[in-house]
Amino acid sequence: MGIPIINPNLWRLISPALPVGAFQYSQGLEQAIANGWVNDTTTALNWIESLLRNSLQNVDLPILKLAYTSWVERDNAALEQVNAVCLACRETSELRSEEVTMGLTLGHTLRELGEALPDKPLGFVATFAIATANQNIPVEEASAGYAWSWCENQVLNAVKLVPLGHIQGQKMLRSLGEKISEVVQNAQNVTEEDIGRSAFGATIASSQHETLNARLYRS
What we know:
Elements: H1 8-14, H2 29-34, H3 41-72, H4 76-89, H5 93-112, H6 124-134, H7 139-161, H8 166-188, H9 200-209
C-alpha cells in the first residue's frame, strides 16, 4: 500500500513564502494585546481558538467551499455573490482592506504563474478557493490548509507581540492543529443562508486598531 502524498501545491499556497503579505496583518490581535485582553499563552490560545471556531468555521471556510464550487461550475455570478458576502462579513475597514489587498496580490501571483482566473478581482478567500480548485485539491483539504495557515500566522503574531517563547508557540500550534479537522467538518455543514458570525471582541479590537498610535501590523 502506497503512502498518501498531500498535494504539494497546497503546501505552496499555505506557505509563508507565498507573497501575499499575510505577515502584515494581525486581524485585531495587536490591539487585543495593547488592551491587555491577551497577555500570556492561555489568553492568546483562547483568542485564536475562539476566532477559529467562530469566524473561520462560520464565515471563511463555508465561503471557501461555495467559491470553490462556483468556480468549478464556472458560475461567475455565484462566485461574485459569495465574494460580496465575504466582504460584507469583514466588519471593519481594516479587515475589508486586508481581504481585498491580499486577494489582489494572490491574483497577481497566480496570473504570473499562468493560472486561470476570472476577469473581475476577488477577495483573498475566493481567490484562494480558485487556486486550490485549479490544482484539483479537494475542498476539505484546501479548507484545512487555509485554517492551518491562518492559525500559524496568528500564533507567530502572538509570539512576537505578547511576547511568548517559541516553545509556547509550538504548544499553541499543536493544540490548534488538533481542532482543525473538527472545524473543517463543521464548516462543510454551514449553508449559504447561515454564513455569518460576529466576533464582537475582535471587531472592537480591529476598529480601535485603526487609531493605535504605535503598531507593527496593518490590522
